[in-house]
Amino acid sequence: MGIRTQWLLVAGFGVTLALVVAFGLAQPASDSTLGQPAPEFTAYRVEKHDTVSLSTYRDQVILLNIWATWCPPCEAEMPAIQKLHEELGPEGLRVLAVSVDEEASSDSVMTWARSHHLTFDILHDASREIENIYRTIGVPESFVIDRQGRVVKRVTGFVLEWDAPAQKALFRRLLADTTRAPARS
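RE: above sequence
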């Protein structure tokens, strides 16, 4: 095999490799959490000064929002989450907003939440363990969990319109499903 043929093979291999990588990066990341049980976690509930776990909210429809006080997109989506909570909270929707602030105290997280007039459950995980458990890639990141405890939607990045009709329709459908999770042994 001549030198020219070798270089053509190397160039062909390089182009093929580049196309495979480019195609792989262009595909949406698969989310193995969808349809799976939401992973258990514990966090400090700042208003009640206690520790809760996801199982505390068993059989409830949940919007789990992972956020931080220093995050402008997190702050931007909070008013819509609050509106969603005000409208659908009475129907049974639980909003769990888990702050992953490492530097802030739970009291300062609560002060921030009060200054933004948030009335849903504010949790604090200064260890940021929830990010590992849910394999997040940043904040904000949100998970919709049905009554059976399964993740039915995952949103990476902020959603300014959590209170939009399409979002509310999803939550109302989940709230209408009164099927309970099977008993755990």
